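User: I'm putting together a teaching handout on how multi-component assemblies are represented. Below are the sequence lines for each component of a complex, exactly as they appear in our records. Could you produce the 3D structure of the whole assembly as structure tokens, so the students can see both representations side by side? Please keep the chain order the same as the input.
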Amino acid sequence: MKAVILAGGSGTRLWPVSRYGLPKQFIKLNGGKSLLCQTVERLAAVVPLHDIFVITNADYRFHVQADLRSVSPAMEDNIILEPVGRNTAPAIALVMRYCLEKLKCGKDEVIFICPSDHIIEPVEKFAKYARQAETAAKAGAIVTFGIKPSRPETGYGYIKKGGKTAGNGGVCKVEKFAEKPNLKTAEKYLADGNYYWNSGMFSFTIATMLAEFKAYAPEISRRVPATLAKMTADFKNMPSISIDYAVMERSKKAAVLPIDILWSDVGSWDSLPEVIPPDADGNVKVGDVLALDTKRTIVMGEKRLISTIGLKDLIVIDTTDALLIVKRGQAQRVKEVVDMLKASKRKEVVEHLTTYRPWGYFTVLEEGPRYKIKHIVLKPGQKVSHQLHYHRSEHWIIVKGTARVTLGTTTSLVHENESTYVPQATEHRLENPGRVPLEMIEVQNGEYVGEDDIVRLADIYGRKNK
Amino acid sequence: MKAVILAGGSGTRLWPVSRYGLPKQFIKLNGGKSLLCQTVERLAAVVPLHDIFVITNADYRFHVQADLRSVSPAMEDNIILEPVGRNTAPAIALVMRYCLEKLKCGKDEVIFICPSDHIIEPVEKFAKYARQAETAAKAGAIVTFGIKPSRPETGYGYIKKGGKTAGNGGVCKVEKFAEKPNLKTAEKYLADGNYYWNSGMFSFTIATMLAEFKAYAPEISRRVPATLAKMTADFKNMPSISIDYAVMERSKKAAVLPIDILWSDVGSWDSLPEVIPPDADGNVKVGDVLALDTKRTIVMGEKRLISTIGLKDLIVIDTTDALLIVKRGQAQRVKEVVDMLKASKRKEVVEHLTTYRPWGYFTVLEEGPRYKIKHIVLKPGQKVSHQLHYHRSEHWIIVKGTARVTLGTTTSLVHENESTYVPQATEHRLENPGRVPLEMIEVQNGEYVGEDDIVRLADIYGRKNK
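Assistant: Of course. Below is the structure of the complete assembly, with chains in the same order as your input.
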């Protein structure tokens, strides 16, 4: 069995923490590991690490690589790259082609698909269910995972189970897939007992899924027999459609494994208490929070001190450049805010103040007319592209580690508490030859200090000028 | 008549905006001028600028000087310095000594005392009342200003007026001073019609006040005949007592001028709508605020984007390093938060990230192990003390203006986009010889980067090592 994690999403339902530049799956929401890392480690209880893959797009490639490396250096290339986003059905077609061609899988290989940004506990229980699903998948079913609902949730799709399938443990037929219900309907579903939350996880053999693609998604199906290279080149012509809509809701092979487990898709800030247990006053507090007479709130901060007095049923999400305060129960309306901010082209919905690059990351400490100040962290062994800027010069002061700096044709080492100066229009390159992260302060001066004033002459990460 | 503004307070009722390092009177709360500047300009409608003085302490001397200079360069030395804070009664004794000795006033000179951090409108009406009070003061009264209440306010002290005094316009006798009432009592006061808010402003002649000090505050009184120098040296031995308690509540000469004017002491965040009119939804919004379905809130930000959804009756005060969220009507409880933060020695109750110095100010952009990054602004013509540091070296990069830098025995000019390096334990001095503010980025490196690692060898502002 191969386990494949879908990690191409750029959800903003957890804005301002989750943004396009660093979306939810890469965030350390509970504890010290990203949701993607937690997902990888959970799957490791089911299959060996070398059978776990992540499908993502070019923008998130280096985030995924860093997360995989943190679990095991051997995993860093277990990445399937989607050339463009075309929803889940084409992505799964690409996964199958990858398995057949690169991993030399037979068509009877079981593939287990799961989202990258959910919380599931405990791991042992999850592993048991995953193996049960594998058995049913081998017998020809497309096995979805239905979570036993604990409340009349209106934020999830539902699966209504039918009768048990023969010889497949607890796996049942699917009577129907149901859209996100209103509260009344959700209450009916809960009382009924045959409705389960659609967790977005499913197992199938390549043969089964190929047959279903052929029957229900011929536009996608006819592109699968090509080579991986050809399929990739042609990917933009795939229809953009979800696997649920393209296959699941039509297939007669769809089955559901009802499971009873702690599960959350952390789909809005309202669901955070499912992941981080509230204290005695019903408050979920993350960061430097001083709460007086405050009940049933969710307060999540970073460095800043947050003081609350007399609050009830509120959500406060504080980041360096954007603060969100929303009445509890209304967190799905964050979408409205995000849409308004997008319409006015606000950078706060796209990027954080910290921007991630293949070689590390930088944080803009301050920006003013004719200058910009950055804190740059370059990972060990990495190098920034060989580049030049037409409109700005740069002062570099090393505060930690050692830099190898090339200016024109001269290369030298610059150590902690030393500085160097890169004049305007001078070719330069920054490398970290050392074993610890290189940290430096960059002061840019010039008539224009935008990120797009860059001419890349060479880049080990294959980036080109846009 | 001399007008004297009391500007030594360090109130934290408007925390986190008002802190010891830059308290309320120096803050631009409404519009572009500090409350102190607004106070000076209001008094300018009553007396010439050269008759307006500010009494403050050494910590606020340069703030006051900068504010006075912004009104008129000729005013910058109209400052009476309190050696230590001893509440208002000793302060007023010091003011009288200053007037007699430095300004050569006669004992029949009227002194008008007013706080530095109140809002009063319109100015013309205020000026008319101030002149009315002057007349009554000349006739021997200590004239307080009683504001006609517009609501049953529990945050102010009250003055109950008695019968009119003969020949003094609207000036009445004081029947009694009343402490801040509870709501029921405040409602009774409002219905009664004879109770007025105690505005903290009052007028008197030196002769009258000296006589009352002699009668009711002999401990203070006996120190007034000394020279200003002697009184200053002995100031720490003054009893710490308010003028209300020491004199007003006992004096038979206390009078009240009932006035009908827009007045606010902006005593808590709850009172901000008295100063900044709410919009159609009842919201007071300052800064970059996106409010959805939000009513009757006060949201005050700086640079950060603030988004609110579904909020009602809340106060949100956001500063660079501290965020306060409090239910409307409970803003006086900010005091509890401030006390808790003081107890745990949190810097957020004392200083802002921007620290003011006689020569300008600096903002800490980032601080980490072994380094600190500052944005420094040095005003034209100013110079930082001649100094050295034992534990850190400093990189200076000029982003605006020109610096004169002395390193050891060498002095040179450093221009925009140039940098210089100050090694550990090297004597150095930074000056701004130019006509525009000098802005620079300082990167400190060293085993210890605390502000107290400084040896001052010379300082034009008279500062010494502590």
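A couple of points students might notice: The mean pLDDT of chain A is 94. Residues 11 and 23 of chain A are 6 Å apart (CA to CA).
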